Amino acid sequence: MLTLYDYLPSGNGYKIRLLLSQLGMPFRLVEKDIQRGETRTPEFLAINANGRIPVLAWDDGRRLAESDAILFFLAEGTPFLPGDRFARAEVLQWMFFEQYSHEPYIAVARAWVHVYAKTVDSARLAEKREGGYQALGVMERHLAERRFFVAERYSIADIALYAYTHVADEGGFDLAGYPSVRAWLARVAAEPRYVPITQRVFS
Amino acid sequence: MLTLYDYLPSGNGYKIRLLLSQLGMPFRLVEKDIQRGETRTPEFLAINANGRIPVLAWDDGRRLAESDAILFFLAEGTPFLPGDRFARAEVLQWMFFEQYSHEPYIAVARAWVHVYAKTVDSARLAEKREGGYQALGVMERHLAERRFFVAERYSIADIALYAYTHVADEGGFDLAGYPSVRAWLARVAAEPRYVPITQRVFS
User: Fold this and answer.
1) What ipTM was predicted for this assembly?
2) Cα–Cα dist A3/A181, whole Å
3) How far, in Å, CA of B164 to CA of B159, rounded?
4) CA of A91: which chain B residue's CA is closest?
5) Radius of gyration (Cα) for chain A, nearest Å?
6) pLDDT of amino acid A119
7) Alpha carbon B187 to chain centroid, angstroms
8) Cross-strand partners of A55
């Protein structure tokens, strides 16, 4: 049985929960509360030296960190990752875009405002908002003529970008000016075996 | 012939130049000066809507952005990417670590101090240094018992992490306390067909 070390409000963790649900793969969820420092204990650092969730663990001792690397591993050979070499690279392009140009702005603003609900320096938050809207603009232009990010089919590129985009409002982002992004969010949510971000029980 | 849109001081661009050299693949280098805003022109935004180098372009019109996605595409089926599915996922794990937990600290500190040589808020720089040393600590512990990052052989995981680590001193990082990282840097620099970061001519 697979074990997923995770924190329910995490979009990065949700990516894995959503794909595992859509693949019909059962797993054991072990929750680690980031806010209580449970990913920085010696015990957890032995699981992931970088001190972050999600981590996927196998019964034979193998472990994998980094949400998008886990998605790629799980999706290989399934309809969630194109078989064509160039399309696969495009999927990775969007996943690296997500981790570098999207998550550090949209997810971090949401964490500050919604998850930790802590007092934030307004200049720092404004920087996060600016970077987030820039990423949303890139997505909007790409989706204006496409149904999904790569090869006109739902893939782990969509899962990676959906995770924090669909809760961007919790970070104070207004998607009113991004109609193509909103239409795409609805398409993703309509996919078979979709589960919401904080669902704890899987079947 | 491949075309690489790039900026010579960029470690992200260097990753591609190094791998293309080691693969013996000729390419045309088109330099875009980030500091002059040459990656934010309408012309360049048509090449990459995210306004960043490197971008690899093919004569048939295909284009790929995001350094680590380009590395993955070029390395598939070569000795620079393991054939084993789990090892490939581990390579991706380290590349996502690089883009999320390493580059935003080590590369950005270097850009501020060395490339742009601009006046930087000391508190912001201290944050970058702290994050950078944390990433170096993760690398040091991993390399203490290994020659390379994945499967004991040189791969694109090493190229991705080498790019900014080997010039970390330009961002004010001191690697004295990271002997395993320094030994690994020397191993990478000794690989066949190695080229230095600012080399413009390739054969």
Assistant:
1) 0.97
2) 32
3) 9
4) B69
5) 17
6) 82
7) 16
8) A5, A65
What Rg do the C-alpha atoms of chain B give, in angstroms?
17
- pLDDT tens-digit series, residues B139-192: 999 999 999 999 999 999 999 999 999 999 999 999 999 999 999 999 999 999
Residues in Cβ contact with A2 at an 8 Å cutoff, skipping those fewer than 6 apart: A20, A25, A26, A27, A28, A56, A57, A58
Q: Domains along chain B?
A: 2-75 (3.40.30.10), 85-189 (1.20.1050.10)
CB contact under 8 A, B50 and A138: yes
Which residues of A, range 97-156, sit inside 8 Å of B by Cβ?
A: 97, 99-101, 103-104, 138, 141-142
Neighbouring residues of B96: CB distance < 8 A, sequence distance ≥ 6: A66, A67, A68, A69, A95, A96, A99, B68
Q: Decide if B158 touches A, using CB distance below 8 A.
A: no
pLDDT of amino acid B202: 62
Beta-bridge mates of residue B6: B31
Query: The whole model's pTM is what?
Result: 0.97
pLDDT category at B201 given cuts 50, 70, 90 is low
Nearest residue to B29 (alpha-carbon basis) of B201, B178, B173, B203: B201
Strand order across the beta sheet in which A63-65 lies:
A27-31, A2-6, A55-57, A63-65
Q: Is residue B191 packed enough to be buried (19+ CB in 10 Å), middle (13-18) or exposed (0-12)? A: middle
User: Measured between beta carbons, which residues in chain B are less than 8 angstroms from residue A89?
Assistant: 64, 69-70, 72-73
Q: Nearest-CA residue of chain A relative to B85?
A: A73
Residues of chain A contacting B138 with CB distance shorter than 8 Å: 49-50
A54: left (phi over 0), alpha (psi -120 to 50) or beta: beta
Chain A contact for B46 (CB, 8 A cutoff): no
* In contact, A117 and A151? CB cutoff 8 Å: no
**Beta carbons of A66 and B96 less than 8 angstroms apart:** yes
